[in-house]
Write a structure and sequence with these properties.
With 138 residues, the protein is of the alpha+beta class. It has helices at 34-39, 44-53, 69-73, 103-108, 113-135; strands at 7-13, 19-24, 29-32, 77-83, 87-92, 100-102. The structure holds zinc ion (2 copies).
């Protein structure tokens, strides 16, 4: 599946703040909000922070005490820059600019119900196998 992660068309709705739309070469369509992408930032810093909080890419941040929930909804890129043929980089309006979003990675975190279900059933399957292994008599 990751081999097909090549975009045919990419639209970044920077001015309207509507998010990013990608048409993939295999016909799949993905649509991301900027908040989703900001939360799922693949840089080392954010990955570490997510692992500590046990969040997956795309899971919303936990409520930060004293923070206004509205602030989160305003995630927007101030600059968007293509990186070669394989990725895109966002300069977020909160000053964060370490995230390089590869097409492959974007396809992996596609938030559409179809991909979400596929991701969940895969991790469910792994758990089933682990359970099965445990129950096996030696
Ligand atoms: Zn980051
Ligand atoms: Zn999808």
């Amino acid at each position: 599946m990751a081999e097909t992660a090549e975009p045919k068309a990419v639209k970044v709705h920077k001015t309207s703040g509507a998010g990013v739309e990608i048409d993939w070469k295999d016909g799949h369509h993905s649509s991301y909000t900027f908040t989703y992408l900001r939360d799922a930032c693949p840089c080392a810093l954010c990955t570490e922070e997510r692992e500590k909080a046990k969040r997956k890419p795309g899971d919303p941040l936990g409520a930060v005490q004293g923070a206004l929930p509205m602030f989160k909804a305003l995630a927007r890129p101030s600059e968007v820059e293509p990186i070669g043929k394989y990725a895109i980089r966002f300069y977020w309006n909160d000053g964060h600019q370490h995230g390089v979003y590869s097409w492959r990675w974007l396809r992996e975190v596609c938030p559409c119900p179809q991909c979400k279900m596929a991701r969940e059933s895969t991790s469910g399957l792994e758990e089933d196998i682990a359970e099965h292994e445990k129950r096996k008599p030696n």
